[in-house]
Amino acid sequence: MEAIGGKSPEAVAQNITSELIKRLGTFDIPFSFRTSNNSVYVTDRHLRTIRYRAASKTFEPISNITVFLDEKYLNPAKTDRSSDQYLPNSLLHENGHLALDDDKRQFTRVVKSFEDLPEGMEVAEMKKALFFVVFETTLQKVIKKAPVTLVPKIGDHPIEFCDPEKHQYRYRNHFGNQIENLTFTNHAPEADVRKAVQDLLLVSLRSGK
Fold this sequence. Notes:
Layout: H1 9-24, E1 31-35, E2 40-43, E3 49-53, E4 58-60, E5 65-69, E6 96-100, E7 109-110, H2 123-129, E8 130-136, E9 141-149, E10 157-161, E11 173-175, E12 179-184, H3 190-207
Antiparallel strand pairs: 1-2, 1-12, 2-3, 3-4, 5-9, 5-10, 6-7, 6-8, 8-9, 10-11
């Protein structure tokens, strides 16, 4: 590969990795991933992500919490447009929330960070209860709801929830492209974590040329 700005791709990837870990504040990283637009995300144990956006060569702010949505809920060929699980792009940002479903389908508990998740709640329970919901302010009710997970798989879309007042478009979430590469480093040594993130970044650097 050619040098980038006078530095080798390996050196660039190493520098970006160090900055991502520094901004996240920990190398205790359960998993990292790269999306189809060459963004690389690094996750901590509070389900926050820090993102390097390769297209603009920028580090995006840390999310409050990040979850993952199956691509089928965005695809009218896989989910009927009339279904309350189908999520058109026009509804995703402004009125999209992360919420826990109660037994009455009221979605009264909005989740804004890891601390809002019930203490002791098992991951299996969350798979059944955690949803991305779209709230219609005029009708005063939830009009769309699709299940999300806390652990991604290839093909999922990451959804980073943030503070709307800090977002440049006043959105309450960032909806990422599909995940193409995924690496798990749960309880791995720091050297292994750094290597895993650097490898993802090298894929992005190569893809962006």
